[in-house]
Amino acid sequence: MNIHTRKTYSIINLPALVNNYNIIAQLAPHSETIAVIKANAYGHGAIEIAKCLSKHVSVLAVALIDEAIELRDAGITLPILIMEGPLSRDDFSIALQQNFWLMLHTEQQIDWLTSLYPDYTGQLWLKIDTGMNRLGIKADDVEEIITKLSTKHLQGLVLCTHFSSSDEVNNPKTKSQIQSFERINQRYGFKKSLANSAGILYWPESHGDYNRLGLALYGSSPLPIEHLPVKLTPVMTLQSTIIGLRKLAIGETVGYGEKWQAKRPSTIATIAIGYADGYPRNAKNGTPVFIKGQIAPLAGRVSMDMITVDVTDISDIELGEKVELWGNNLAIETIAEYLDTVNYELLTRVSSRVTRIYVE
Ligand SMILES: *Cc1c(COP(=O)(O)O)cnc(C)c1O
After folding, report:
1. Per the residue annotation, which of 148, 175, 247, 256 is the catalytic one?
2. From the CA of 153, how far away is ligand 1's center (Å)?
3. How far is CA 315 from the centre of its chain?
């Protein structure tokens, strides 16, 4: 059975995905643009997104080998970069069999490689820590690590790093990370990969042999919109419907904890989406919701399965009316600001209870 009577959908616009990929890839014509589809393709459905992109891209990336195995099982044949690398010694043989590219970032991973797989011929990436201080080999240790690697390991090696602040256009950190990276690599001349979405869009000096495109592929911006060099189209529209309508007199309250109170005779619409669907519970009164071409403010606490919205100023509202939580008409960046979070988190939080509909 596959019946969805609740009309709460994440509508995924595949032509927009392809268009975003193409216009962003054109910003770095000398780089290979890898499509990052970790975390279920940022909540868009990794298998469907990979199938769609397979005709347009030549490498995919995920965080975990488990995510890559799921894609192989679904018939995806492109090389897949595993950005957290091997998490056990056996992962090397899986990677070799499956054409997964491993991003190595710890001495332990290097030790597994050199002791157990001295003739490993799979594609390897080596991550350098240039100031993110999360994963990667410290600048001072790079030389020692590289001397441990065999000729086969070094064949085609890609040196990479990750930016901590590339979304902040006035922050000098990105340039200093690029400089640290170049200083190390000038000794070796390995192929290189530095740029994430913000790097591709805003820091052309970060473009390498490979760039790693995540968020912007989905039409969301890692930068203040005014700094985008191209127009991105949101791929996800989160949509639901009105399942309840009521009139409130002055002084009446709405929802758990009575967090909203009518200051005028009001109409409240109840909408079939809640925090169990990924609409965050910390959304405050006033968070915008798009209904019938207008913006209506959230009124009262987000429940598990529902939200309530003040639709007093919208005429001719009826049950079943469509509502957009974010997407084409309501920028996810705006919602993220209201919620004191980032578009990345909103996208990846949409839960499996929300039916995804793919528009081709
Ligand atoms: C997630 C990730 C990316 C993609 O970042 P976006 O900001 O979404 O483009 C690139 N590189 C690494 C190592 C990542 O973990």
Report:
1. 256
2. 24
3. 37
The Cα 199–Cα 24 span in angstroms is 11
Q: Which of 9, 38, 192, 279 is catalytic?
A: 38
Instruction: Please give the single-letter amino acid code of residue 145.
Output: I
Q: Which atom of ligand 1 is nearest to the CA of 196?
A: 9
Mean pLDDT value of segment 38-49: 98
Residue 137, pLDDT score:
96
Cα dist from 228 to 21, 29, 64, whole Å: 14, 17, 30
Strands (E), the chain: 9-13, 32-36, 60-62, 80-82, 100-104, 124-129, 137-138, 158-160, 191-193, 210-213, 236-248, 253-254, 260-261, 266-271, 288-291, 294-297, 307-310, 322-326, 355-359
Tokens of 344: 């990345």
In sign, the C-alpha dihedral spanning 39, 305, 13, 232 is negative
> What local confidence, expressed as pLDDT, does residue 5 receive?
83
Cβ-contact 82, 103 below 8 angstroms: yes
pTM for this one? Answer: 0.96
The two tokens of residue 310 are 């003040």
| Contact predicate 39/64, CB 8 Å | no
CA angle 95, 99, 105 (to 5 degrees): 50
- How many CB atoms neighbour CB 187 within 10 A? 10
Question: How remote is the CA of residue 350 from the centroid of ligand 1, in Å?
Answer: 19
25 contacts 33 by C-beta, under 8 angstroms:
yes
Question: Ligand 1 centre from 212 Cα, in Å?
Answer: 6
- Say if residue 1's pLDDT is above 70: no
Q: If residue 92 lies in a helix (H) or strand (E), which one and from where to where?
A: helix 91-98
Strand partners, 358: 12
